[in-house]
Amino acid sequence: MAEPSAPVAWYLRAMVRVQLTRHLFTFFPGLEGKAIEVEAATVADVVRSLDALAPGIGFYICDELGRLRTHVNIFVSKQMIRDRHALSDAVAANDEVFILQALSGG
Amino acid sequence: MSSRILIGTRKGTFIAEKTSRGWCPRLSGHAGSGVNFVAADPHTGRLWALLGHGHWGAKLSISDDAGATWSDAGAQIKYPEGARFIGQDMYEDASSSFGVGWKIRTKPATLAKLWVIAFGPEGRVFVGTIPGGLFESRDGGASFALNLRLWNHPSRGGDLSQGDAAAETKWFGTPASEGGDFAPGIHSIEIDPRQPDRMLIGVSTAGVIETTDGGKTWRSRNKGMTLDHTPEPDAEWGHDVHAIELCKGAPEHVWQQNHTGIYYSRDGAATWTRVSKPENGVRFGFPVTTDAEDGRVAWVLPAEGDNKRMAIGGGLFVARTDDGGQSWRTLRAGLPQELAYDVVYRHALHNDAGSVAFGSTTGNLYVSDDRGEQWATVANNLPPIYSVRFA
Asked: What are B133-149's pLDDT values in tens digits?
């Protein structure tokens, strides 16, 4: 699972909302229609928390090295994350994290 | 005789069952997802599907109710931390007249494709992957581990976990992963039923590799194969094996469809003899399947290749030998002979007790219940078919 590149103090953790692409509900139908809120300081924390809610989803979003999969994007509010390797981008209270796939043909 | 055919396609898992009206296919699961291979563990009855979700990576899926419902396996295939391999990356190179160059570098391994699964006794399950991993379970699939003896084999540069290789790899690549990365892939795993510690694997592009001690040591089994398209035709490594299958009842008989032709071994893959008949169009192709009792009998799906990779002359046919490749019969009855340009992938031909089935990337599924003499069309509009297995 993804690890932040630097330790982040626990008191920086905040509740953030998570929006998932509908595509992921195909594999994790239990998440559909739920308001997802997790406590996190980084995007890596968000993915870890999501994996606790829906075991296995972390390996859909990231590969076994914790890197964001090539054709998956994460936005924190309206900003695409910069650290696709360790997902160390910070999240703050009231942020909304969007996890979606890049569009592709076929 | 099996009354069920498991079918992996680009858009889901299908199951065909034999009824009084013939073979009837239906969608079983994974609608919309790529399914590289579907097989049943004969010891447990569990169905396994090897998925390629594209965006979301490769996943193992299982069904314990004959395909009525599927779920992700509890243990997924993941390369262990520190697993590295020598890979080739293409990059833009203005100094090259081609505009691109190849960079060889040691890089961390992550799962690019689940390609084949095989089942041994006592809970042993094996999965072949891209990039070039053989994962094994000794608890029925509850956990998997990368076979490090093969991963660190001298033919691919040795143990790279602590640094770059001193040697170079002899395992080249295939672009067959969903992402198109160029990396080696294990697509065939053949377990000797009489001696389960003996196993042959087929690697694109390295060759045939054998263990006789349950995976502790591995050696090449490429003697007699030729690399026609390279400067070193009799090289030990680098062979483009498309598929191998051994005869379950007489495992000294092993068949291979290779990029350079069809090969047959009567000594357990110690030596190979090329048995193609190019004058009959029997040379290039991807799959091969052999009878479970009579190892001299095999079926192939000839294609025009390797520069075209399509059915020859617009007419689809299967070729069968009954005499170890000395002669081949071309079997066309019931198969389309006009405007048919189907391609049949390496896992999409299988036989069981006189029945033979194959599926094409055009979504056609054909079955013969008389060893290929007469064919019946089972489906014409399936998604592109990746695997066909009686079970």
From this structure: 999 999 999 999 999 99
- A60 contacts on B by Cβ (under 8 Å): 53, 56-57, 59
Residue A58, φ and ψ in degrees, nearest 5: -60, -35
Q: Does A64 touch chain B (CB under 8 A)?
A: yes
A79: left (phi over 0), alpha (psi -120 to 50) or beta: beta
Mean per-residue pLDDT for A35-55?
97
Sheet hosting strand A14-20, strand order edge to edge: A36-40, A14-20, A96-101, A72-76, A79-80
| A69 in contact with B, Cβ within 8 Å | yes
Could you give the CA distance from residue B52 to residue B106 in angstroms, rounded to a whole number? 25
Contact list, B76 vs chain A (CB under 8 Å): 56, 59
Domain at A10-101, CATH homologous superfamily: Beta-grasp domain (3.10.20.30)
Strands (E), A3-93: 14-20, 36-40, 72-76, 79-80
Q: Domains plus CATH for chain B? A: 39-46+74-378 (2.130.10.10)
Instruction: Name which of B80-94, B247-261, B348-362 the model is least confident about.
Output: B80-94
User: Nearest CB to A69: which of B56, B59, B72?
Assistant: B56
For chain A, the domains span: 10-101
Characterize A47-74 residue by residue with b for buried, 16 or more Cβ atoms within 10 angstroms of its Cβ, and e for exposed. bbbbbeebeebbbbbbbbbbbbbeebbb
Nearest chain B residue to A67 by CA distance is B110
- Report the pLDDT averaged over residues A15-39: 96
Mean pLDDT of B192-216: 97
Contact indicator for B155, B171 with CB cutoff of 8 Å: yes
- Supply the ipTM of this predicted assembly: 0.91
Top-confidence residue, A70 or B1 = A70
User: Are A65 and B179 in contact (CB < 8 Å)?
Assistant: no
* Residue B197, SS3 per DSSP: coil
